[in-house]
Amino acid sequence: MKIKFLLLASLFFRAITSSAVEPPQPYGPLPSERQLAWHQLEFYGFIHFTVNTFTDKEWGYGDEAESVFNPTDFSAEQIVQAAKAGGLKGLIVTAKHHDGFCLWPSQFTEHSVKKSPWKNGQGDFVREMADACHAAGLKFGVYLSPWDRNSAVYGQPEYITYYRNQLRELLTKYGPISEVWFDGANGGDGFYAGARETRNIDRKTYYDWPNTWALVRELQPGAMMFSDGGPDVRWVGNERGVAGETCWATLNRAEFSPGEADSKRLNGGDRPGTDWIPAECDVSIRPGWFYHAREDAKVKTPDQLLDLYFKSVGRGASFLLNLPPDRRGRIADPDVKSLAEFRRRLDAIFAKNLATSAKVTASNVRGNDRKFAAKNVLAGAGKKYWSTDDAVKTPELILDLGKPKTFNVVSLREFLPLGQRIEAFALDQWQDGQWVQFAGGTSIGSHRLWRGDYVTTGKVRLRITQAAACPALAEVGLYAEPVVKKEKL
Ligand code: FUL
User: Fold this and answer.
1) What is the spatial distance between Cα 304 and Cα 205, in angstroms, rounded to a whole number?
2) CATH number for the domain whose boundaries are 359-479
3) Residue 96 above 80 pLDDT?
4) What single-letter DSSP state applies at residue 192?
């Protein structure tokens, strides 16, 4: 009787004490709801398509005849299916590139698909792509080049009205827009309705970005906005698709504006930073952004795409892979094949988390409360996390795998609603009666993937070696990449 009472009393005591343990205070700049949703995408695509596809150029001058744009066998479904098979979660299309040709029938210019022989001037590339993406469950975004080498008024205040009118069309007629891409290449020589001259603009003031951004917020509150320095997602500082080995999700936003890029800083972010503006790694599956038949043999291999995935997604950034349609208006075979094989290999790596049944212990658990238990790092959904008492910034966590297991990929994720807290970590394996370090790194953020030599061990230890605040870690995963035979690479 007495024992039963004591047991009940202790359970009651635990219940009241555990509910009293508060979660850690958030640290530093925090992601918005919009950014949190975007972080889950990780991998999505670019579709570069316009007159350049037909003139074999990368940058059109702006004097291309509308008749040039004439895909022979366009299929939005084929493009979307190729992307989906590659595991891309969305597509961002060039509605207008620097040449100024509009791939939708804008009411504000005649320089568009309206004047093209394609579908007798009735075609709307943006519409078909938006509908196909939405039907397939993919996000849909638009690239509207601020620089317009066709427009007579480029460089004058009227152009800003024109640009915003076009943006309004794109943001109101095509359903939900997931991302708006504001390119940083701005001003220079161009056709400008026959003027054929060089027009330089003041990148800081000409576009009056704050008001354009406000328009996007008003019309599509869920849309992420990309530019060199945000406001929602930043350029990674190169077009090779590679984030810095250290890549913070934070940036001193006031020091950047579109077209004003300190690429080194963008590559790694600023710590602690004033705003949450994670990096996006844009890169083309081919050397060029637009399709050129001469590059058919230069499509990135599945192996190269995997490497890029680890150097973008695996460093807390997103991977924006460009798939340029060819003159038919379809993704060419070599690209489709490489992308599908890349996906097969990626899925094979992440098919099984070898840590799932591990016994997880930690040197400290916040308030000894199971809400913050070490084993939360195996929960998967990202809602739970392991955390420690405020004063404990360099704890360690041990995964006892029960028996030796072999892996070569480790996946870590912080619990983002509490900010980016961890500044350095190390990974050890239990070997011949002692701990031996096999990996280490700095930033974790939304995702950190380590990929290296195969490790075989029964126990793995994660040491947080530096943190700005007590860590909040949402995931630890161990994966084994199947060995690929040489001829498949
Ligand atoms: C650059 C542009 O100049 C390229 O043509 C391409 O669109 C790339 C994604 O952004 O700034």
Assistant:
1) 39
2) 2.60.120.260
3) yes
4) G
- For ligand 1, atom 10: residue with the closest CA: 183
Q: Which helix (H) or strand (E) holds 189?
A: strand 188-190
**Ligand 1 mean position, distance from CA 202 (Å):** 19
What residues does 464 pair with on adjacent strands? 425
Pairing of strands 233-235, 279-284: parallel
Question: Are 140 and 129 a contacting pair, CB within 8 Å?
Answer: yes
Element (H, E) at 410: strand 396-414
Report how far residue 370's alpha carbon sits from residue 376's, in angstroms, rounded to the nearest whole number.
Answer: 9
**According to CATH, where is 3.20.20.80 located in the chain?**
33-349
Q: Does 23 sit behind a cis peptide bond, omega within 30 degrees of 0 on the bond before it?
A: no
* Distance in angstroms (rounded) separating the CA atoms of residues 346 and 304: 12
Ligand 1 atom at minimal distance to the Cα of residue 290: 5
- 422-431/448-467 β-pairing: antiparallel
* DSSP result, 284-315: ESSSSSS--GGGGGGPPPHHHHHHHHHHHGGG
- Condensed to tens digits (0 to 9), the pLDDT of residues 393-434 reads 999 999 999 999 999 999 999 999 999 999 999 999 999 999
Superfamily of domain 33-349: Glycosidases (3.20.20.80)
pTM of the model: 0.95
183 within ligand 1 shell (Cβ under 6 A): yes
Atom 4 of ligand 1: nearest residue by CA position: 289
Ligand 1, residue 183: give the atom nearest the CA.
Answer: 11
Distance 458 CA to ligand 1 centre (A): 48
Q: Which atom of ligand 1 is nearest to the CA of 58?
A: 5
Listed in sequence order, the residues at least 6 apart from 405 whose beta carbon sits closer than 8 Å to its beta carbon are 354, 456, 457, 458, 478, 480
Determine the Cα–Cα distance for residues 256 and 250; give it in Å rounded to an integer: 12
**Residue type for position 472:** A
Indicate the range of 110-124, 135-149, 176-190, 462-476 predicted with least confidence: 176-190
State in Å: Cα 145 to ligand 1 middle: 9
DSSP per residue over 308-332, as a string? HHHHHGGGTSEEEEE----TTSS--
Instruction: Report the pLDDT value the prediction gives residue 186, as an integer from 0 to 100.
Output: 84
Task: Answer yes or no: are the C-beta atoms of 35 and 41 closer than 8 Å.
Answer: no
Question: Cβ(289) to ligand 1 under 6 A?
Answer: yes
Query: Which atom belonging to ligand 1 lies closest to the Cα atom of 322?
Result: 9
Report the share of the chain in percent with pLDDT over 70. 95
What is the per-residue pLDDT for 1? Answer: 44
Ranges for all domains in the chain classified under CATH 2.60.120.260:
359-479
